[in-house]
Design brief:
This protein is of the alpha/beta class. The protein is built from ten helices and 13 strands. The chain is globular, with a radius of gyration of 18 Å.
Length: 324
């Protein structure tokens, strides 16, 4: 028997304010047709002025713990994936930890932009496999609207705010692809592409928060190639084929990228979870938001094999195979 990480609860939170493409067309030179055709996005949620990333993360975490039927005190590790922390320090994860009444273990933030949740999931899985944690709360939460240049139509139409969370608990498996839990994770980065998707500010550079800047065509080209590779890597590592996948839960950045990955796997559209039309790109919150929706509405069920994948600035990218 080997130690596995079982996904026992999932939750999400979206701010109340919804901004449609038509709303954005009142602010910048764009239209609903232009945005939808190029990205598949129709609307996104934007945090209220008094809402911080921690507020979104706490709400999603509470729902994940409720779904897992566990109290906050059961958690011994909190990992929060975010690009938009409340403060430079301390980690936003410790605010979440305190709000949930968790007084043991440890907590930290993790930054890998849109790949952040997968990086955090892999990190949590390794802590569990090594016996250094038993119950882990993994959160992806963003107030990405705070780092957007709302006069730049090439970026401001793409992103939204939100949070998603999962609870992982240690369990036992037999060491094959039929096990429940996280079967494998696969992470990559290539810093040569740093300035193809980045923020033009920071503590040690400008002393300002800065705004998102992107070379859209280059990001698209790399995303299609890298995501196809990392999906194949996950399947090969587990001796599986695309036919074995019950659900693809991709990073929700662009509908064309999602469709390209699905075609590469020869997956029917019915097996792909899509939220980008309503959420936009919520960065590290993207994958857990989509996962939470599909579990919540009953599409993803116990025993299903789920493939998660994402790519973000850096470039960073990764995948994970999870059997619920």
């Amino acid at each position: 028997m080997i130690r596995r990480s079982f996904l026992v609860g999932c939750g999400s939170y979206l701010p109340e304010q919804v901004v449609t493409n038509d709303d954005l067309a009142l602010r910048v030179d764009t239209s609903d047709a232009w945005i939808a055709q190029r990205t598949g996005i129709r609307s996104r949620h934007i945090a209220a002025p008094d809402q911080m990333t921690s507020d979104l993360a706490i709400a999603a975490a509470r729902r994940a713990l409720e779904a897992a039927d566990l109290p906050g005190e059961a958690v011994d590790l909190v990992i929060l994936a975010t690009t938009t922390p409340d403060n430079t320090f301390p980690a936003t994860a410790v605010k979440v930890q305190a709000a949930l009444g968790i007084t043991k273990g440890f907590a930290f933030d993790l930054q890998a932009v849109c790949s952040g949740f997968l990086y955090a999931l892999a990190t949590a899985d390794n802590f569990i496999r090594l016996g250094q944690a038993h119950t882990v709360l993994v959160i992806g939460a963003e107030t990405f609207s705070r780092i957007l240049d709302w006069s730049d139509r090439s970026t401001c139409v793409l992103f939204g705010d939100g949070a998603g969370a999962v609870v992982l608990c240690a369990g036992e498996g037999e060491g094959h692809s039929g096990d429940r839990g996280i079967l494998s994770t696969h992470l990559h980065a290539d810093g040569r592409h740093y300035q193809q998707l980045w923020v033009d500010g920071g503590v040690s550079s400008t002393g300002t928060v800065g705004h998102v800047r992107m070379q859209g065509q280059e990001v698209f080209r790399h995303a299609v190639a890298r995501l196809s590779e990392v999906v194949d890597e996950a399947l090969t590592a587990n001796g599986l084929t695309p036919d074995d996948i019950d659900w693809l839960v991709p990073h929700q950045a662009n509908r064309r990228i999602i469709d390209s990955t699905a075609r590469r796997l020869k997956l029917s559209p019915e097996k792909v979870v899509i939220t980008v039309d309503r959420h936009g790109n919520t960065s590290a919150a993207s994958v857990p938001l989509a996962l939470s929706e599909a579990i919540g509405d009953g599409r993803i069920q116990r025993g299903h094999l789920v493939l998660l994948e994402a790519m973000g600035g850096g470039f960073t990218w990764g995948s994970a195979l999870v059997r619920l």
